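Today's session is about reading a structure prediction critically. Students often jump straight to the picture, but the first step is always the sequence itself: look for stretches that repeat, for charged clusters, for runs of hydrophobic residues. Only then move on to the predicted structure, which in these notes is written as discrete structure tokens rather than atom positions. Here is the chain we will use throughout the hour.
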Amino acid sequence: MCSTNCTHCLGATLLHMAILSMILNILLFFPAMQHVSIDKIPNEAWRFGGLLGSGVMNGNAALFSCIGLLGSSYGLFVSLFAIYKGPKCFVGGDKWEYPFHKGNYLVDLNYWKDCKSPPHIIPWHLSIFIVQVLVSSAQMAICICSMMSGILGTIFTSEKCPWSHKEA
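Below is the predicted structure for this chain, in token form.
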């Protein structure tokens, strides 16, 4: 099948990206590299967008591109929602909450002072989720390419690819 080399390459790439996504999700349990109690961990960490969606589901994407596409889509949407929502942080008065509304902290940095602790939680939060958005988007593109490669490989079952310019 002419798509075998492409499929192997895409599968290997997805495996590395799946591992990266799982590591990013695990880092969410340590806001700004600090150990905090369970109630202070952001809800998005518990949704496991990077661990399950872009991680485990895409680890099997070489065989199941459709599942990989669903997983990377899930990872992408959880990450985009987390960026929009902002980090969970200490706001004073023994309260840990999400102080931002409708992404307001993204356009006005004055809102950043609303998060008192952990230090640097907003850049930490944004860094992790922006990388996760990029990884999930790339995984989606790779899964689509892998699906197309599989479809073309099924349609053109001969050893010679129709788009190849080599002589028979």
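Discussion point for the tutorial: The two ends are 15 Å apart (CA to CA).
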